[in-house]
Amino acid sequence: MLLWPLGGILGVVSLVAWVYAFAFGIAESFGLPLRAPSLAWQVPAQWIKGRSPMVQTATWGALLGPGLVTRNPYAGMWLVLLLIALNHSLFTVLVLGMAVGIAHGGARALGVLSNRRHLDTNCTHLLILGAQMYWRFIDGLALLLAAGALAAYILSLLVMDGYL
Question: For 60-67, which contacts have Cβ atoms below 8 Å and span 24 or more sequence positions?
């Protein structure tokens, strides 16, 4: 909701999103050491201490699951914020934001459950690291795909405005 008002400046938001998607798409696809934006914030212990397991799970899931207020190794999540700002309908923005947050949180939970299956093996850390490298590569390809779509969108804006 905070970035939605920026949607009125379509060219600027689109250009920032394109630069972000292209730069991080190249970095993640080729394994370059460009760190994705993230926050180091974690849920304060006093927010969950003494609460029921259901409230603890809901708190952790609502705050950390979407991946915006915690460490997130994938740059693609932050592009979603810029893309949502391009939509003109506040209702659509809210629905899309919730859907992406639920999908991302669910995928993170499934990843944790998947990693848990490999805890008994001697090379658990190698499996987790390999999976993280794989998904970082996939995230990079998705960012490059988004950069291509954004380039086409920016070109269409330039044509409609008569610059090309």
Answer: 61/105, 61/109, 64/105, 65/101, 65/102, 65/104, 65/105, 65/106, 65/108, 65/109, 66/100, 66/101, 66/104, 66/105, 67/104, 67/105, 67/108
Are 105 and 129 contained in the same domain?
yes
Q: pTM, whole model, 2 decimals?
A: 0.71
Tokens (6 digits) for 96: 């899309």
Contact yes or no for 81/3 (Cβ under 8 A): yes
Q: How do residues 17-39 score in pLDDT, each as one tens digit?
A: 899 999 999 999 998 888 777 66
Distance CA 37, CA 77 (A): 9
pLDDT in tens, 76-106: 877 877 877 777 777 877 787 778 777 777 7
Please, what is the Cα angle at 48 between 119 and 128, to 5 degrees? 20
Q: 97-102 long-range CB contacts below 8 Å, 24 or more apart?
A: 97/1, 100/66, 101/65, 101/66, 101/68, 102/65
Residue 49 and residue 125 in one domain: no
Give the residue among 14, 4, 9, 7 at the shortest CA–CA distance from 146.
14
Residue 33 and residue 61 in one domain: no
